[in-house]
Amino acid sequence: MRKNIAVITGGAASEVGIALKSAGVVVKYLRKAEYNVYKILIDGTDWWYVEDDQKITLIDKNDFTLTLNDHKLHFDAVFIAIHGTPAEDGKLQGYFDLLNMPYNTCGVFQAALTFDKQRTKEYLSLFGIKSAKAIVLRDAAAIEAAMQQIVSEIPFPVFVKPNRNGSSYGAAKVEALEDLEAALLNAFNYDDEVLVEEYLKGREVTNGVFTKDGVVKALPITEIITKNSFFDYKAKYEGDSKEVTPAEIDADLTIEIQENTKRVYQLLGMKGMSRIDYIITSKGFYMLEVNSIPGLSEESIIPQQARASGYTLEEFFTISIEECLRK
Predict the structure, then answer these.
(1) What pTM does this model have?
(2) DSSP letter at 287?
(3) Whether 305 contacts 295, CB under 8 Å
(4) Which end of the chain is more exposed for a tag (fewer CB within 10 A), N or C?
(5) Beta-carbon neighbour count of residue 261 at 10 Å?
(6) What is the pLDDT of residues 119-160, one digit of tens each?
(7) What are phi and psi of 313, to 5 degrees?
(8) Inter-axis angle of helices 143-153 and 180-188, to 10 degrees?
(9) What is the CB-side half-sphere exposure of residue 223 using CA atoms within 13 A?
(10) Which run of H or E residues covers position 308?
(11) Which of 92, 119, 120 is nearest to 106 (CA)?
């Protein structure tokens, strides 16, 4: 008997467009022979069942059910394809936990922690995971004083980015002091905490990780070679970058990064598929951030890595659903 799977997308974050693309790919590739697939759109306070891009009927949020043709349909599991709030910060997972509904991502704590870039780095530093030095700003009205601290502690260039956002919205590489204030103000448009990080010169790579039959597995590594000053939104989604999978790096270094990826995944207690970003410098590699719900659009990195590992997207998404149903 085919299981009913809800692919939930939308949300309130600036990344909603990417989420819709991810959901479209998941709906396209989930095995229709094994699953009845229903696309659910979070649109403000309304949760819609969507078919052929048309809003058909509302979801009953009391028990996450769908009524079609006077029949109340219950879901067996949820595939979460939302970037930013309310999924990457753990709010949606809390709702599904209350309903005892299986889902394909990490849980509430892991999502909330990894959504906060700086606190994730601080926690992982306790286990020897290296990352860039950073300062967190929590008051847009106190930028002038913060700039003095930044200048005294972190040399230019620096990276400025919202502490809790993704897809490089609000992020900038700042080369000089005269450009810092504008970058900080822009980042505060996306979050009430802004991160200022030291610039680490090197090669940017990223590594996907997932669980299959209870075993944590690292995917091939991707190197990101961007035409821009860093891997910004245009580089990620508008073709202003070259992504090489598998990355053309030393075999021993590849294994070391993949082992580190699995270790971070396990230290955090992650589930489902995640992606961890790094910079490789002359002094070794440094973790940039943990992505608890990575993009799954046709342009995204995880689909590239899955194919390079020998999986079709149909197989890869099936693993994700079956893993959460197994538990």
Answers:
(1) 0.90
(2) E
(3) no
(4) N
(5) 25
(6) 999 999 999 999 999 999 887 777 887 888 888 899 999 999
(7) -65, -30
(8) 120
(9) 13
(10) helix 301-308
(11) 92
